[in-house]
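Need residues for this backbone.
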């Protein structure tokens, strides 16, 4: 797994991916469905089969992490900070 350079961690990332769904009520069998999920966070690790994003970071720790298999990802988009946002943190 490759650790993402610190400068790239400051740019939020939007990931759209498909997740499994379940239903625990009695009903006629059906095909089921996949859920379309939108995750926004900071990329901290990536490798060929998965990415890991977090919602919160300090200088030396993270919280609220989500590991997403690349095979389920339909799109990834990085938000770059513009001059308008430079002073906000």
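Answer:
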């Amino acid at each position: 797994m490759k650790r993402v350079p610190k400068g790239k961690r400051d740019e939020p990332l939007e990931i759209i991916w498909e997740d499994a769904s379940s239903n625990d009520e009695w009903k006629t069998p059906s095909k089921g469905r996949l859920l379309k999920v939108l995750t926004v966070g900071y990329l901290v690790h990536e490798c060929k089969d998965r990415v890991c994003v977090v919602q919160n970071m300090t200088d030396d720790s993270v919280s609220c992490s989500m590991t997403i298999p690349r095979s389920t990802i339909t799109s990834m988009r990085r938000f770059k900070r513009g001059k308008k946002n430079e002073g906000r943190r």
